[in-house]
Design goal:
about 375 residues; alpha/beta; 434 Repressor (Amino-terminal Domain); Rossmann fold; 6-stranded parallel beta sheet; 19 helices; binds adenosine-5'-diphosphate; binds magnesium ion
Length: about 375
């Protein structure tokens, strides 16, 4: 790389007040490597950034890439794969995924979500999608069934159909076909898929796997897996443990993803507020009832504490960013003035509908941690 480019790189970094450490992080390299790019070329010194690294640095710093660099790095994808995952449904896996993806779309990254979510499928069948002009509309959505993923998965599905439909006595096949219709349709749809998930990943900066049960697929493709732990739900913790064990048991040549726990529903104070107010001031409450309520409150606190302990005893590092229930307030406000069918749903993000809310701030912090610190 020419000295003028090295000087330009340094000038751009310094005028954007970005430290070497941060610049290195954004380019996915260590500090020494970054420094070497800014060092004017001595005879024995010609280290230069890869196209991917340069592209990543400029994109993530929100700096327009100057023409001189563009010649070296055309729109190169980063191709990082994340999965915000859990076995248990209803823990916020999809909404958190879409929020983080929307935040990255706002930062001009090319983002895709690969999903097997039922609500997504239902809405697509109804011809619904993201509202034009929103950050979510910049995300490309793919149904997992439209991609070639793993042959092992397909084989497993076909075997399930054979065992439960084709191999049944003729008289029972119709019932089997009814019960396993979703699987039969899935296999038919998979057979039409032409694009490999691995090729799709190359075309994007970030690909999210909003996938529920297919651990094989997550293990094979993800670089980072954040397992959702609802801090108010023991079963979500239990299922996270099972999920992690299943992922770790998969034998695969690709390096294992980095696993983290993502704690949600973490506003312990907020959750027990009503009970506290009730116990606090109600006049004329008998001592006995007051004591019962106090005891209930204590037990509630202790239960949350116990869950907290169980979470931190897991063999899994926790992300520092904890999610609260603040999304509920933002969503409630958004839904207030809308028809039921126009309410917050799969294709909405807090980045679009409540960009100044506490909940959107949480999403930004989570995105920042995932992208800048954990990958
Ligand atoms: N950050 C968040 N943004 C929006 N909704 C969230 C968030 N965290 C949790 N949720 C909750 O997730 C629920 C929907 O989860 P769902 O789509 O059923 O989850 P999953 O994809 O895990 O099955 C909603 O009721 C919503 O209240
Ligand atoms: Mg979902």
């Amino acid at each position: 790389m020419k000295d003028e480019l090295r000087m330009l790189l340094r000038k751009l970094r310094e005028s954007a007040k970005i430290s070497v450490a941060l610049a290195a992080k954004r380019a996915f390299v260590d500090e020494r490597t970054w420094r070497s790019w800014e060092t004017l070329k001595g005879a024995a010194y010609d280290r230069q950034p890869s196209e991917k690294a340069l592209w990543s640095f400029f994109q993530r710093s929100g700096i327009e890439m100057p023409q001189e660099f563009k010649a070296r790095a055309d729109d190169k994808p980063l191709g990082k794969v994340l999965s915000i995952a859990s076995y248990k449904g209803g823990v916020g896996k999809s909404p958190i995924t879409i929020n983080v993806a929307a935040q990255l779309a706002e930062q001009n990254f090319k983002v895709a979500i690969v999903t097997d979510d039922g609500v997504f499928r239902g809405m697509c069948n109804d011809g619904r999608g993201p509202a034009p002009g929103t950050q979510v509309s910049k995300i490309d959505f793919y149904d997992e069934l439209d991609l070639i993923t793993s042959q092992a998965d397909l084989k497993k599905m076909k075997k399930e159909i054979r065992d439960n439909v084709t191999h049944l006595p003729i008289g029972e096949q119709q019932m089997g076909r009814f019960l396993y219709g979703h699987l039969i349709r899935a296999v038919e749809r998979k057979a039409l898929a032409t694009e490999r998930l691995s090729d799709l990943i190359i075309r994007y900066d970030y690909v999210f796997l909003d996938i529920n049960v297919k651990t094989e697929l997550i293990r094979r493709h993800a670089d980072l897996v954040a397992i959702v732990l609802d801090s108010n739900c023991y079963y979500s913790i239990q299922s996270a443990e099972a999920f992690l064990a299943a992922l770790r048991a998969i034998k695969c040549r690709k390096a294992a993803p980095a696993y983290f726990g993502l704690i949600t529903n973490c506003d312990v104070g907020g959750v027990s507020r009503e009970l506290q107010e009730f116990v606090g001031d109600l006049p004329g409450l008998s001592d006995e009832i007051r004591e019962d309520l106090q005891q209930a409150k204590r037990e509630h606190y202790l239960r949350r504490e116990r869950l907290h302990q169980i979470i931190h005893a897991l063999d899994l590092p926790m992300l520092t960013t904890e999610m609260t229930a603040s999304h509920k307030i933002a969503i409630e406000l958004y839904n207030e003035s809308r028809d039921f069918l126009d309410g917050y749903c799969y294709f909405h993000s807090l980045i679009d509908v409540a960009p100044h809310s506490h909940a959107a701030g949480e999403v930004r912090r989570l995105t920042d941690e995932l992208i800048n610190c954990r990958m």
